[in-house]
Amino acid sequence: MKVVTTFHPSSSVLASCKWQLLDDARSEFLVIAKLNQLDIYSLQPEGLKYEDGLEIWGRVRAVRVVPIKKSTEMHLLVLTDHPEPELVFITYTTHTSRKNELRITKKLSLAERTGRIAEFFVDLLVDPTGQLAIVSTYAGKLKVVQLDDGEYDSDFDVSTTELNLLSLATILPSPDDLTVALLHVDYQQRLQLLTRDLSLKELQLSPLPSAVLPSVPLAAKHFSVDEEVPKLIHVPISEKDEESFAGGVLVIGGSKIFLYDLAPAEKQRKQKEKQRRTQKKKASADSDEVMKDEGKEKKKKARASVEWPWAEVSAWCQVDDVGRRFLLGDKFGRLVMLCVDISSNSSLTLIALGETSPATTLTYLSNQVVYLGSHYGDSQLLQISPSRLSDSDTPTLPVPGDIHTVTHIPHSSPGSDYDRRHRGFIVNGRGSHLTEVDRFQNIAPIYDAALVDPDNSGQYEVVTCSGGQNTGSIRLVRSGADFQEAAAIGGIPNITNIWPVRSLYSDPIHTHIVASTPQETYVFRIDNKHTVSHVADSGFVTGKKRTLVVQNLQKKVPKEAGQGLTYMDSSLVLQVTSDELVLLNLDKGLGEFTRVGDGVCKMGQLAGGKPGWIDREIVAASANASQVVLGLSFGRLAVVNFADNKFKLVGYRDFTNPSGGIAEISAVSCTPADQSKSFSPMAAVAFWQTHRVEIISLGSPFPTLCASVSLPSLPRSLLMHRFAGESANAPPHLLVGRADGVVATFVLKDKALVEQKQIPVGNLPVTFHTCKAKGRTAVFACGSRTSVLFWEKDRLRHSPLILKEVAAAASLHTHDYRSSLVLATSEGLVIGDVQNLEKLHIRSIHTGLDNPRRISHSPVHKALAVGCVRHTPVRVGEPEISRGSVQLYNDTTLDKLGQVVLDHDEEPMAIKALSVRVAEEAKDCFVVGTVIIDSLENESSSGRLLLVEPDYSRGESFVAVSASEKVKGCVYAVAAVDGLVVAAVNSAVVIYSIEADDHTRALSFVKKVEWNHNYVVANLVSRGNLLLVGDAISSVTLLQYERGALQNVARDYSPLWPTSVEMLDERNVIGADNDCNLFMFTLQDGAERKVLERNGHYYFGDMVNKFIPGEIYRALSSFEASDIEVEPKQLFFTTTGSIGVVIDMSDELSLHMSSLQRNLSTYFAAQPGGASHTKYRAPKNARGRSDADNSSFGFLDGDLLERFLLFGDDEEAVRKVLEGSTEAEQLSIAPERIIKVLERLQSMH
């Protein structure tokens, strides 16, 4: 079975809204909706503060606030999209004494098996009184929901003759009436604006257009419905308006904005009387007279209009309370304010504000601050300034030359050259009026992606083709702790350890740093923020000796009562080298170290001259505030403390291995598990030959309390630690750093080392360093890579540090660098701070209008090839101009190496880094497939195949096209088989060889084989000599290239409409379809032929564009992972910015996890506002779930399974899940094993 889980959640923002409570603070909240998540933010003076979130099992389409003012409650309506739309009622309640509550109160199903899905307008409206909600999901029908105090009361359906609905707006002509404005395309393809009255008594819309606004035809030349449809905005009545104005409707989204005013009450009365007479004439069959009267009707003119010189409007919001100012954003990120002036000389004024991300949603907050949510770019928090914010001489926004603009609103008069009444104003000054207050990263939509490990560290980076419109970008996504560098000290290579030193043990300020290399020790004094001085004569042993330990010490003094000893503050500092102990005193006034007493204590002196000590070397050492534990050669462990400024040998123990020989010590640790203690009652000791770790008591004769099993690799470092966040009574952890780069963790419980886990940290020996990160104690595990270990959500977690070659780490707190870290790298010391222990790092390379569409990585060339499409912004209705290019980037620095610009109307459709055979030699290159766009063609008839590679002979910035071949169609995909190039050209699969001319050595494509399909081949995957073909309409086919021919191995004939496919291995296939399902096939041997048998079908809820074989973190060895049989197989990427992981799970474990998923589904369905997980994950098509697919199979929901870890100490919830609802559903797997499996799953994403 396969487990589907999330590495990066959807980041595309689809909708937003704002509301204010009537509490004493007038609390304001911003609601942000993503694909399946609702987030609540409070508005604070410093910005947005996250308050709560709720997962929605469905695809969120719209969110609205019910406008009912309350002091502690906010009511929300969320509309989820097809194939099973629902209206979800959500209440957010604030509390002063406990956590705020966000809960689902009701779900209203809107699904219909026979309804025709609305093509243009699937949305939700709430009327200004908060009494009604109108939902459009199916053509010819609206769902009207009556609300009572923000909650569901009743609902009914109303039919509409307007089938192709484009937009709706609610109008309140009087407190007791509700009128709906509709914009639609009629059966003659004409754009019509009209209104209908909604009758709550008759539960229907009026069959005749309302007298509020008679039917108005709109000129088709001004509007386009190709991408963004026109929108309606109601303009309410204001006290300052002239008496003749009874409200109006704005029509936006075309090349012109129109304001149509509503009829006053008297005019409505006359219109209704006229409609009554007309109906009477129709009833008398006097059709000629009726047609004559209709012909006399005058076409209603717009009260005001203004040219819209930009692209289609993608989002809008109201700014003021009276509905006279609106923010409009077009699909290329142009933000404009629309001002409506209602007077005898009414006008519309557009004020250009600046460029932003393409807006999907706009929400005005307060104090000229607006939230912009985006699908194609980063979401932004923007502040609008009335004056320009830069001295730029460029216009605020680009405007075509034939459109008249002004730099400020002039005082016009009737008859002026620029007639305000008919055209309005476009104010376009100089410079931007926008300040970005905050930015929220978004990697959607992901069109393509590559998995890259440029430094071969085992920690992969995901590189995505993201963004669109004016915010195209290449995104590098990597998980790890966020380190912010503040200063660096260079010129000290090969540092192995560092110790910041304080003037007093209790002093929080560090004054010196001691650093050790394998050959020498350095002492630095921290002078100020910019200066660190090397102290040559420091008192420390520095000459050609490696330091093992440096530690500030406390003094033991008698208690006042004279009974026992206590610890007091001191300025003493301990240094341990390979053959001596040094005791120093730091003079705070002089800032100098001096040796105390004899200063240096050799091993012979420590033992009082006893034999057997002089020749022993200190091979390992550890110290705390009052104890020193030394691991000596020949298997001896010595315990030392000090009194009267002298070192005192407490005792020792000689270790032997099971065979009777000497047990050489490899590592020791006496760090107290409780950081507040000055001593430790126990120590950890590791051994070379046995690879075991023993916990010993530090009371003579130092007996062994417990021991670990023999580890697969040598233990090189040890640390006993209780993590911040664990209770004081919790058992401590033993951390073991192994020589193979793996951290083994144990829990010391009941005098036994249990719950062993492994964390990979590269392939070099691991050392531990206790530090403070983000205000809490954490452990840095340093090997070839560095990982930060910390305690969160009742379990030990780790996060890679985005720094290479960190040898050591320590907390540093100075006057200038507070709560910081100092790290030892291969070049010296780095001072900085960990901003976040667990964070996805997203690095962006912005390409602007060059929108990345395809990407491939070549490890040989260490380059990324990116296919980009550039769409030049145009006005509404004008044809777009596009041009493609292939750009090469360095895979480490992301510096641009060069590009190949394609012909006009030519776009890259496929890019693949391949190793092809040229004259019996392997050649690594990029193969690019293109299409030439012709708007008059239904199916493309021409394209090209290009062979692209960096030409380093002409400089690093040159990219050469080594071969080019014209093809008869669009090249949808490319692959390689047996050193040949395979291309999917329209409905054919064509194999080419790369041939070199005998004389010129010029390369060319030579066709070898062609295989034709019934449908367009959109996906092509190769594995060995097998080819997986995914067509655009039907399903998948498996081909085999053998003896120079393509043979059909097996084919599935079900109508899946696959969007992406990949091969798991030679017999298993995974893919996704356009109904947001995942599927799997396995190759089976039938009686007569091989068949593809479907063995997995699962509703994921998002459109998957790409599968990539591989994993984010390099897995542990099979020996270590054998107890938990899970293995990551695939990564996948979606249109809303989600990155998922497909993990393979053994059959035996899958049975247990399937039972756990079933019981979790039952448990959550029984909670208030719960839903059926089985129903949600059942495969779906455009009509919803079929009777044959009432549940998913072959896949498990990893995100749901991992919710079990969130129960923590909720014993009742754990009991219900383990026992199930019946005896047959009781789980047979132990909860400890469940936690171990789920933590292993979490470590893979």
Give a verbal description of the structure:
- It is a single chain.
- With 1245 residues, this protein is mainly beta.
- The protein is 7% helix and 50% strand.
- It is built from ten helices and 87 strands.
- It has a six-stranded antiparallel sheet with strand order 32-33-34-63-62-61, with no helix packed on it. A five-stranded mixed sheet has the order 84-85-86-1-87. Strands 14, 15, 16, 17 and 18 form a five-stranded antiparallel sheet that branches.
- α6 (1147-1165) packs across α9.
- The longest helix has 19 residues, at 265-283.
- The radius of gyration is 36 Å and the shape is globular.
- The two termini are 18 Å apart.
- This is DNA damage-binding protein 1.
- Residues 15-388 form the RSE1/DDB1/CPSF1 first beta-propeller domain.
- Residues 485-832 form the RSE1/DDB1/CPSF1 second beta-propeller domain.
